[in-house]
Amino acid sequence: MCPNVCPGRRKARLPAVSATGTATRGTIPVTLALVSPVMAQRLLGLGVDFPTPAEWFQTLSKALVIAYVARVKFTESIPKLTFTATSGLLISAGLILAGPGVAAADTDTDKEIAATLNTELDDDMAGNMTDEHVDNARAMVEAAKDRDMGEDAATMAVATSIVETHLDNLDWGDRDSVGLFQQRDHYGSQEQRLDPTWATNAFFDELNRVYPDGSWDDTPLGEVAQDVQRSAYPDRYQHQVDDAEVIVDHLW
Description:
Blueprint: H1 37-46, H2 53-77, E1 89-91, E2 96-98, H3 102-120, H4 131-146, H5 150-165, H6 190-193, H7 196-210, H8 221-229, H9 236-239, H10 241-251
Antiparallel strand pairs: 1-2
């Protein structure tokens, strides 16, 4: 082989690549020769041979495999992460970018729904709906959905809670009553009764005891609610049914 560059020859060899993806000692990265003609001339003067297309393709393929393996190992090295509702996560190198948590987005949505409802409702909750009220009403709607009870059941629950607490999840009440439905302690613990989903399911359980097999279908919702709650003011529930229907329509 010519000690430097043989006349008429521009064939070169890329630097050898080790199993770890680094060039072996004593080689010059050929990629520098691709930067500019001046650099290429300097490398030629040093006796660096340029590759044929076949050699270039073969070496590039090896480099891509090494890069892929390194990427996989890097990805596997990232610990599993637990995301909270309000957390944001940034993993550099362009892997993941998460902004404000889901809870913030839900709150914004609930505020928008509350603002809309405040213009549509006609009774106690007109102008008084908040994002918290929307969230509590949503828990009732979801509980009704989970039990395949339909929109009327959700409407009854929402109307009942409007009468009892104006959709506030109160930790106090008459005697030992607490929660959205002001349920007494025989329903369950205070912690349970203050859980909107648990309290709604307890309301539906009592409904099924009073009206087995959905036998309340043909009865006015306010009357059914009174039979479940056994209130000293039996006529109040029916007055809130229309507004409860509007709320449920937005959340169903």
